[in-house]
Amino acid sequence: MSEPAAWSSLRLFAQALWAPRDLASAIEDERASWRLPALAIIGALMVMDFLALPLFLRAVPQMAPVGLSPDMLMQLERTARIMRPIQILLSPLALLLKWAFTAALLFGMGLLVLRPAARAEGEGARLAPVKRFFVLVVYANLALLLEEVLRNLLLWLRYLLTGAIVLRPAIGLDTFVRPSDPALAALAEQVNVFEAWYVVILIGGVGALCQCSRSAAMAVVLPVWGFGVLVRVGLALVREVLTRQLGG
Amino acid sequence: MSTRRLLALLAIGTAFGLLMTLLVFLRHSLERERALGRGHTFPSITVRALNRSFELQRVPSGRKMLLVLFRPDCPQCESELARLERVCAEVSTEKLDCVAISLGSEEQTYSWQRTQVFRRLTIAVSVDPVFAEPYRDWLMAVPLVFLITEQGTIHDRRAGERSQEDTLARVREFVQ
Q: Contact, B141 vs B71, CB < 8 A?
C-alpha cells in the first residue's frame, strides 16, 4: 500500500537532513523530485524576506555609509524601497541558477576525481548525471533554509525584546570573533553549524549517488563548497568597496 | 585523459581562475579605497595642467584643495565637473584650489577638455603615468571628489554625483 504523498515528501525532507544516503537512493529511484523542496525553500525564504521588509527599510540608514549627505540618504532610502521587493521577487531565479551551477560543478569535480572509467577495474565509483546532483543540491539547501529560519527568529526576537534591528544576526564563528577585514568577516560568518550540515548532506549524498568512499565524496564536495564560500567573500568585498566609495 | 575529463578540468580551472582573479582585483580596489579614505594623506604627485598652458603643478598644493579624479569618457564625471566648476566659482581663488585630475591619457583628456569650458577648474593629468594605474578599473566610472587640507590630509571624500547645494555647503564649511 502506498503512503500519502504529503507523508512521503516529509519523509524525504527528513531523510535529506538526517539520512542523506537514503535520500540518494530515493533520487536514484526517481522518487525524489527537485520541485517540491525547491518550492518549499523559495516560498519560505520569500515569505521571511517580505515579512522582514519593514525592518529592512527601517535599518537602511544604519547600513548607509558614514558621511552621506541628507539628500543622498533620502535617495538611498527611496532606492531601497523600490529595489528590495524586486530583489526578493528575483531571488528564486538566482537560487535556481546557484543550484544549477553547484550541480554542474559537482558533476565536473566528479569527472575529475572519481575516474568513472576505473569502474571496470573494480573500484566501483560511477558518475551520477547532473540532474541527480541538482536534486541532491536542492534537498541539501534545506539545511541552509533552517539557518535562515533561525536568523529570522533571532532578528524578530531581538527586535521585539530590545527594539534593535540586526538584519544578519551572528550564529557562527562571527558570534565570538568579529574581524574588521570584510573577507575574514564573511569567512567567519560561513563557519557555522548549518554550513557544516549542508556539507555533510552533500558528502553523504554524493558518496551514495556515486558509490564512492567518503574521502572521494569529500574530494568532490569540498572544492565546490569552497568555491561558494569564495563567491560570498567576493560579494562582501564588492559591498565594502562600494560602501567606501560612497561614504569614504 | 579523456575529452570529458579534460573539458571538466578546463571548465573548473577557468571558474576558479576567474574567481581568484576577481578576488585579487577586489582586494586591490579595497586597498586603494582605504588608502584614499578620510584622514589619510593624499599621495604627492606632479600634474600637467592642460588648460593652464601645460604648466606643472604639485598636488597637494599646500593650500586647501578641491580635487577630483575623473575619466573623460564617463558621463557622470562630465556633469559633476560642470557642477563643481560652478561651486568653485562661488569660492575665492585665495581660499581654494580646484583641480580635476584625469585618469585617461593626456591626448584623450586634452581633446576632451577642448570641448568643455572650465575657467575655475584646472584640468590636469599626472606626469607620472603609474599614478593612474590603480584607478583604472570598472569601479572608477564615477567621479571621486576630495577636500584636501593644507597638510595634504584628506578631509572629506565622496563618489558620484551630488547636488550643487550640498557640495557648496561642504566646501564653504571646509574653507572657513
A: yes
Contacts of A231 in chain B (CB under 8 A): 19
Same domain, B28 and B57: no
Q: At what angle do helices A70-113 and A35-51 cross, to 10 degrees?
A: 160
Same domain, residue pair B65 and B11: no
pTM equals: 0.81
State the residue for C-alpha cell 566609495: A245
Same domain, B29 and B50: no
CB B80 within 8 A of CB B121: no
Give ∠ CA B163-B167-B169 in degrees, rounded to 5.
Answer: 115
CA distances from B25 to A228, B29, B42, B137 (A): 18, 6, 22, 9
Residue A112 to residue B20, Cβ atoms within 8 A: no
Pairwise CA distance, residues A103 & A34, whole Å: 12
Q: What number of other Cβ atoms are within 10 A of residue A33's Cβ?
A: 14
Summarised one tens digit per residue, pLDDT across range A86-127 is 999 999 999 999 999 999 999 999 999 987 555 555 556 788
| Cell numbers for B135 | 584607478
Q: Which three cell numbers stand for residue A136?
A: 541532491
Residues B26 and B111 in one domain: no
For residue B4, what are the domain limits? 1-35
Q: Which run of H or of E encompasses B72?
A: none
Using a CB-CB distance cutoff of 8 angstroms, which residues of chain B are in contact with residue A233?
Answer: 23
The CA-based angle B148-B122-B173, given to 5 degrees, is: 35
Residue type, A138: V
- The reply to whether A244 touches chain B by the CB within 8 Å rule is yes
Q: Are residues B63 and B125 in the same domain?
A: yes
Rg (CA), chain B: 20
